[in-house]
């Protein structure tokens, strides 16, 4: 194998983030704008709240999602994509285009 | 939640294919052209042969990879992307662009 043909480790890492179950869908729900926990959960009915909570923490840790607490009464917590997260939009768009063309319902 | 905001099930299915460990990397190794089992394995050193064999069978079942047996002596078996598989190139490209910009080595 030639060195130039070796796979970039960054590519593998990016896939390891995006490959976790629900992560792609969670990011997609946040692309139009910040959302509260319940709004995200309602858009992905098959995912448990516990799983959503876990995934949001991971995405926060990776700098893809940002959690903001607003001091309203009752307190309001919103999840939003960071710049790193927003720049996943073109990845999402290409996955969606591919799915539309090739995946039968 | 408004109906129009619901997530397309095709999108979820596409992610369920692409989210399996190694699948993205295997597809990437096949983008430049058909390869033999050993060539793919050598390009992804951390993946076991058993895993590669399993993933290739799955990808064949999904119509993403095509297996061709050439009646040479000894027999030659090549794996290639189908049209459906090749059209994943733009997805791969966007993932790679994102990783280059945002993932530290």
UniProtKB/TrEMBL annotation, chains A, B:
<dbReference type="InterPro" id="IPR002577">
    <property type="entry name" value="HTH_HxlR"/>
</dbReference>
<protein>
    <submittedName>
        <fullName>Helix-turn-helix transcriptional regulator</fullName>
    </submittedName>
</protein>
<dbReference type="Pfam" id="PF01638">
    <property type="entry name" value="HxlR"/>
</dbReference>
<dbReference type="GO" id="GO:0003677">
    <property type="term" value="F:DNA binding"/>
</dbReference>
<keyword id="KW-0804">Transcription</keyword>
<feature type="domain" description="HTH hxlR-type">
    <location>
        <begin position="8"/>
        <end position="105"/>
    </location>
</feature>
<dbReference type="InterPro" id="IPR036390">
    <property type="entry name" value="WH_DNA-bd_sf"/>
</dbReference>
<keyword id="KW-0805">Transcription regulation</keyword>
<dbReference type="InterPro" id="IPR036388">
    <property type="entry name" value="WH-like_DNA-bd_sf"/>
</dbReference>
<keyword id="KW-0238">DNA-binding</keyword>
């Amino acid at each position: 194998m030639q060195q130039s043909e070796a796979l970039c480790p960054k590519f593998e890492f990016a896939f390891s983030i995006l490959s976790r179950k629900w992560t792609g869908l969670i990011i997609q729900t946040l692309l139009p704008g910040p959302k509260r926990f319940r709004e995200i959960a309602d858009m992905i009915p098959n995912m448990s709240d516990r799983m959503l909570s876990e995934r949001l923490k991971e995405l926060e840790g990776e700098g893809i999602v940002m959690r903001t607490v607003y001091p309203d009464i009752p307190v309001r917590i919103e999840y939003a994509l960071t710049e790193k997260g927003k720049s996943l939009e073109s990845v999402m768009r290409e996955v969606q285009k591919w799915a539309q063309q090739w995946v039968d319902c």
